[in-house]
Design goal:
Layout lengths: L2 H15 L1 H7 L2 E7 L4 E6 L6 E4 L7 E6 H8 L5 H6 L3 E5 L1 H11 L1
Helix pairs in contact: 2-5
Length: 107
Amino acid sequence: MDAKEILEVKILKRAKEHPAVGKAINAPVVFDLSGDGGGTWTLDFTTPEVSVYPGVVENPKVTFCMAAADFVAMVEGELNAQKAFLTGKLKVKGDMGSALKLGQLLS
């Protein structure tokens, strides 16, 4: 799976299976993924039905920045999110509490 497919299928499915995470965040979250297969997507928790779409919204609660390949590895369980953050492979802008909550859907 590539980053787009992971966001639009895997992460969206996990978000729907764990609605408490979305309720706790209750804001848009942006994924800014660089390199091959990268792009920018928004995971929107502001509506009753969680959605994912390409592009950026103004004032997201959290923005995750990383290489698309690292994102895929993290979601597939091949890269530890905490290690990625500590080594600079994952950069988080915005509300760290929401980022930690969202981590439940990413790994």
